[in-house]
Amino acid sequence: TKSIVLQIDSKPQAVSASALRRSLQERLSKISSKSSDEIYLKLKTSTAPPLKLIDLPGVEKGNLDDSLSQYVQHNDAILLVVIPAAQAPEVSAAKALRIAKEYDGECTRTIGVISKVDQASADPKVLAACQALLLGQGPRSSADIPWVALIGQSVSIASAQSGSVGSDNSLETAWRAESESLKSILTGAPQTKLGRSALVETLAHQIRSRMKIRLPSLLSGLQGKSQVVQDELVRLGESMVSSSEGTRALALELCREFEDKFLQHIMTGEGSGWKVVASFEGNFPDRIKQLPLDRHFDINNVKRIVLEADGYQPYLISPEKGLRSLIKTVLEMAKEPSRLCVDEVHRVLLDIVTASANATPGLGRYPPFKREVVTIATTALESFKNDAKKMVVALVDMERVFVPPQHFIRLVQRRMERQRREEEIKTRSSKKAVDAEQSLLNRSASPQTGSTSKSLKDGKQDKDAKEGPALKTAGPEGEITAGYILKKSSKTNGWSKKWFVLNEKTAKLGYTNKQEERNFRGVINLEVPIEHSKLNLDVIGYLII
Prior knowledge:
The chain has three domains: 74-236, P-loop containing nucleotide triphosphate hydrolases (Rossmann fold, 3-Layer(aba) Sandwich); 244-410, Up-down Bundle (Four Helix Bundle (Hemerythrin (Met), subunit A)), CATH 1.20.120.1240; 451-543, Roll (PH-domain like). A hairpin with a 2-residue loop joins β1 (4-8) and β2 (11-15). It has helices at 17-29, 65-72, 95-103, 124-134, 154-162, 170-185, 196-236, 244-268, 274-289, 293-296, 299-310, 320-332, 335-358, 361-364, 367-401, 405-444, 461-464, 530-533, 537-543, and strands at residues 4-8, 11-15, 39-45, 48-55, 79-84, 110-115, 147-149, 448-449, 452-453, 471-474, 480-488, 495-503, 508-512, 522-525. By secondary structure, it is an alpha+beta fold. It is elongated, with a radius of gyration of 57 Å.
């Protein structure tokens, strides 16, 4: 639509495009060319965000340095750097470009405009500089900025071609004429950067880019406001339905929500739900362990109960009557821990009721109904607590009254199984001792001299020929004697226990550190003269341990 509402001095009025142009020209013509005051133009439409255009004609003269930052520091502000075509060769020295680079170093919201190209059409140097800017081949400070070329008399050109300055289509005609004129002047420049149509397209592209950047934050803000509104509605409460059936349905729905929250606390352990399990698995077993069971199952107390119950001639198989009496007495002590467990669970459930009511959003909207639900649940839990106490007492009494015979049979079976395991352990231990002794005898029957080993036949005398508990004899005629002897070391001047083997036939005495070793560490020849060996068999006998 071409309908435009112009608001001047707070008085809106519908105007056409041509009327708007003439009104702007009349108002701008009254402003002195030497004035440095800002010129504001605000555009609003129902299909696009509002735009505020601010012209700062005094920037080049330095009159607006103090107030300039309040306009250009905003991220949503698009900077239009307008350079006359005659200054294109020296664009790097333009103050407006330096200000734009200062506030927009990445050139993401800056657009360059080369104006009055028609007035410099006779200067090839200027035209070449303009084409370089449009092609992005200008100085480094201007290479990242999109540039658009304009002429200064587009409306006059359109009027000369169409002859209808006052028509509504004069602006569109002027823009088309401007583009055609620029094509003839800047033959090497891109056509998408010529004329006011290209400027409008470039501005629209920048606005869309800025909107895409701002869109996530805008959506986040809207969601935040929506949450605030929902929280306020929850705080104020929804309107109750008018009919009794609707009220009943709403109450039942809130009760179901409360029930779901209550079961969630119980099943998942949320809040205080874990304390229910802790009562059964922790506190209750601890109380049972603290009962004086050792005093009741003391052997003297058991004997006394058996004598009192069965007399001095009890049953031949088992004093069952006395043991039954003992079990009944002990089970009676379990009633009090059971009641305490019920009380503890009851207190935990009361806390869960309060927590579930607070965690139900629907009940929060109706405080009176919430208090009523908590009261009803508390009353029901009180009734359940009384029933639970009666139930646990009845369960204990059932165990006390009926002690099955299988209980005593299992006791006897466990005792017999324990005795069998103990006997097996003793048998294995004695067998190991016998095997070790036999291995010792077999080891003693295998003497060695130097590096030569000789196998001897086992005889009946290797079991009987013993001179003492520390000596072992072997060989057909008992000529081999083995045992531990203390040997004095020449290095340490101390005594150490060694395993010696004496062969009377060969007159040699060998020794090892341990009985299990297969090779002798040393061999003493007993046939050498006494004065050389310094060894006396009587002395050896005294050293045997």
